[in-house]
Amino acid sequence: MEHLIEIRDLRKIYALGEEPVAALDGVSLTIEQGEFVAIMGASGSGKSTMLNILGCLDTPTSGSYLLDGIEVARRSRTELARIRNRKLGFVFQNFNLLARTTAIENVELPDFYLNRLGRSARRARARMLLERVGLGGRGTHTPAQLSGGQQQRVAIARALMNEPPVLFADEPTGNLDTKSSVEIMNLFTELSNEGITIVMVTHEDDIAAYAKRHLLMRDGHLIKDDASGGGA
Amino acid sequence: MNVFMIFRVAVRAIWRNKTRSALTMLGIIFGIAAVIVVLAIGRGASLNMVAEISKMGNNMVMIFSEQRHTAAGVRGAAGEGQSLTASDGLAIRRELSHLVQAVTPEVRTQMQVVYAEKNWSTTVYGCSTEFSTIRNWEVAEGSFFDELEEKQCARVCLIGRTVATNLFPNDDPVGRTIRIGNMPFKVKGVMGVKGVGGFGQDQDDAVLAPYTTVKRVLQASKFPDNVRHIKLSLYSMDQLDEAKREIGLLLRQRHRLADSDDDDFRIIDMAEITSTMSAVSSTMTVLLAAVAAISLLVGGIGIMNIMLVSVTERIREIGLRMAIGATPANILGQFILEAVVLSTLGGALGVALGVAGAQTIGNLQGWPILVEPSSAIGAFLFSALVGMFFGFYPAWRASRLNPIDCLRYE
């Protein structure tokens, strides 16, 4: 069976100062369709670099990365942008919604670059997604009129706009209170149960507990993977 | 993503920052408005000048006497020679009657004119009976002098409106006798109002008398046949080249010039004067337009400045757009289009402001104003070009940004 994500001997070297620093030092792993994975580790462990490369926001210094069976390790900026647009959804710690723009227009944004739907179909899908994340009546609100938890739900709806197979979340609850965090994590769990692959970076154990598989990173190495190590 | 989509994104981005967008546009608005106003005034003035010059005469051609090269190689200015005579004029009238409808010799002299206790200094023009036809200048009251009076050096004259108002504030001048210099002249009529000439002179400040009278009586000239210049009227300007050639041949023959001699006269038509005058005014227009263009340049730099600030300020937005699938070309397009929309919007407002401003200035100052559609369209298109040019660098910088750095930017 073909893996959704397959990386082999991935390295990312930063030439900082005199000594080159290896943020990723030969990481290999596979992620299957429908998995809910948490990447954990202390700051500087390489987990953010890992997420950036998996999310096609950055390219590795060496190694191979097959996404959905396609080699994406060495692609142009334009090609990476197209891949992100069609196959990946992003949820950020600080939401990154466009200010002074309504929730529904924020959700529509990915399709502006894909242009798959017409004007009315796009609006209909954005409205449906807002309902899906529990913000049915808030379509015309701007981010300033929404709470942190609501903003993050708009961001999740936006990430789902182009029906990507994978969702990347970078500390999705880092800026949220406990109640909102639980709501967001429950939403992720529901999406995971619907078959969407989720890869999440977090340093909080209780947040990571929502995931089915846990990867622990230290000094650019993958030191623990409970899928292989724990026999899950 | 098609151009229309990028356009919508750009318009939304501008609309989200209304105040800043409006301030950015100010530079372009005033730049374009200045260009429109300057061009409207410049074109209006030059068109007015051309109209004034053609009003000076009816298919008019002028002949000036001109000194030939002397032995010393020095050449006098046009009008200084003494070669041209009234008989030359009569000969042209006689020989070239198929081309020329009217001829007048012209002599001028500055004189004091007196009626009762009023006195006025003015130019006395000596001319023939056909002067009125050639200059398109009708008699308002009374009648022009006739050929008999011209032949007999009769002391008769016609006065311009300015002279009439100064000498006869209350009376009817026709039939009165005025003194020109020391000589009494009978006023046969008053000329219609001719207005201000193309060179700013008051054309109504004039007295017309038979050239024979002016030469023999007023100037007591020893060479009564010599005249300063000859004006003539052609039947049609289409025959201008033919007429100039025929007149030249006739005059050379009459002046007994050898084939090797230069002309001792110069034939000038209104087209030449018109083109010289409009060249002068278009030089002024170009100069003023250059000043206006500099203000547009400053407006463009303003746009670049704001766009650079905008790129830095919206770095997170750029990162987010890239993360969800905007290609570098999309980002480049968005920011260039934002600059272009800003500048063309400013351009459109500037054209409107410029047209309104030009009309207002024209009304207040009583200047002729001409807003040419081509200059309005040109200014508008130029504003789009300014946006494209000055928007490119900030947009290019935005498109080269790394999405990770953008997203992490605080």
Order of helices and strands of chain A: EEEHEEHEHHHEHEHEE
**Widest sheet: strand ordering of chain A:** 6-7-8-3-9-10
Order of helices and strands of chain B: HHEHEEHEHEHEEEHEHEHHHHH
Largest sheet of chain B: 6 strands, mixed, barrel
Topology:
The complex is a heterodimer of chains A (232) and B (410).
Chain A: E1 5-14, E2 21-31, E3 36-41, H1 47-54, E4 62-67, E5 70-71, H2 77-87, E6 88-91, H3 103-114, H4 119-132, H5 148-159, E7 166-170, H6 178-193, E8 197-201, H7 205-208, E9 213-218, E10 221-225
Parallel strand pairs in A: 3-8, 3-9, 6-7, 7-8
Antiparallel strand pairs in A: 1-2, 1-4, 4-5, 9-10
Chain B: H1 3-16, H2 18-55, E1 60-65, H3 86-95, E2 100-115, E3 118-127, H4 131-134, E4 139-142, H5 147-151, E5 156-159, H6 161-167, E6 177-180, E7 183-191, E8 206-210, H7 211-218, E9 229-234, H8 240-254, E10 265-269, H9 270-313, H10 315-323, H11 328-365, H12 373-399, H13 403-408
Describe this structure in words.
By secondary structure, chain A is of the alpha/beta class. Chain A has one domain: P-loop containing nucleotide triphosphate hydrolases (Rossmann fold), CATH 3.40.50.300. Chain A has seven helices and ten strands. Chain A has helices spanning 47-54, 77-87, 103-114, 119-132, 148-159, 178-193, 205-208, and strands spanning 5-14, 21-31, 36-41, 62-67, 70-71, 88-91, 166-170, 197-201, 213-218, 221-225. Chain A has a six-stranded mixed sheet, sandwiched between helices. A four-stranded antiparallel sheet of chain A has the order 2-1-4-5, with helices on one face. In chain A, strand 4 and strand 5 (70-71) form a beta hairpin. In chain A, helix 5 packs parallel to helix 6. The longest helix of chain B has 44 residues, at 270-313. Chain B has helices at residues 3-16, 18-55, 86-95, 131-134, 147-151, 161-167, 211-218, 240-254, 270-313, 315-323, 328-365, 373-399, 403-408, and strands at residues 60-65, 100-115, 118-127, 139-142, 156-159, 177-180, 183-191, 206-210, 229-234, 265-269. Chain B is elongated, with a radius of gyration of 33 Å. Chain B is built from 13 helices and ten strands. The model of chain B has no long low-confidence stretch (mean pLDDT 86). In chain B, strands 2-3-8-5-7-6 form a six-stranded mixed beta barrel. By secondary structure, chain B is an alpha+beta fold. In chain B, helix 2 (18-55) runs antiparallel to helix 12 (373-399). In chain B, a hairpin with a 2-residue loop joins strand 6 and strand 7 (183-191). Helix content of chain B is 55%, strand content 17%. Chain B has two domains: 3-52 and 277-408, no CATH class; 101-227, no CATH class. The A-B interface holds A 52, 55, 57-58, 77-78, 81-82, 84-86, 90, 92, 96, 98-101, 105, 109-110, 112-115, 158-159, 162 and B 1-2, 5, 8-9, 12, 16, 316-317, 319-330, 403-404, 407.
